[in-house]
UniProtKB/TrEMBL annotation:
Protein name per Swiss-Prot or TrEMBL: RlpA-like protein double-psi beta-barrel domain-containing protein
Record bears the keyword Repeat: no
Highest taxon of the lineage: Eukaryota
Keywords: Signal
Extent of the signal sequence: 1-23
Length: 136
């Protein structure tokens, strides 16, 4: 009889000590969980495909046309205003906001504001550098 009471009490203890957990909400699309490799270039920032006007001193970026995937209304693009983390060849990194489309950039490549290019790649005289980046 003592063994039965012991097992009942043990099971009650185990059941009472189990903590209920909840799944975390999924905030990112599968395509946004990837890290991308490409070329980083810079451009003269102005009115962008996201419907905003930005400046060369801001930490902003234009995503290549394929990954930007503009629809019939590019101002409503879900990539607009998303944050990207970019790492340059020397390991310097920066976070920037997506504000435009780069029609001439290859898949995986980004066109950056001059201020962002300087921070990630260095001297503007380079013109292009290797980068890897991901959506935050």
């Amino acid at each position: 009889m003592n063994k039965i009471v012991f097992f009942i009490l043990l099971n009650l203890f185990i059941l009472c000590s189990v903590k209920q957990t909840e799944a975390l909400p999924i905030k990112k699309l599968a395509s946004d969980l990837l890290s991308f490799v490409g070329k980083g270039t810079y451009y003269d920032v102005g009115p962008g495909s996201c419907g905003q006007t930005n400046s060369n001193s801001e930490m902003v970026v234009a995503v290549n046309k394929e990954q930007m995937a503009n629809g019939s209304n590019p101002n409503g693009n879900p990539k607009c205003n998303k944050k990207v983390k970019i790492v340059g060849p020397s390991g310097k990194s920066a976070t920037a906001r997506v504000v435009d489309t780069c029609p001439g950039c290859d898949n995986g490549s980004l066109d950056m504001s001059p201020a962002l290019f300087k921070k990630v790649c260095g001297d503007l005289g380079l013109g292009v550098c290797s980068i890897h980046w991901e959506f935050e």
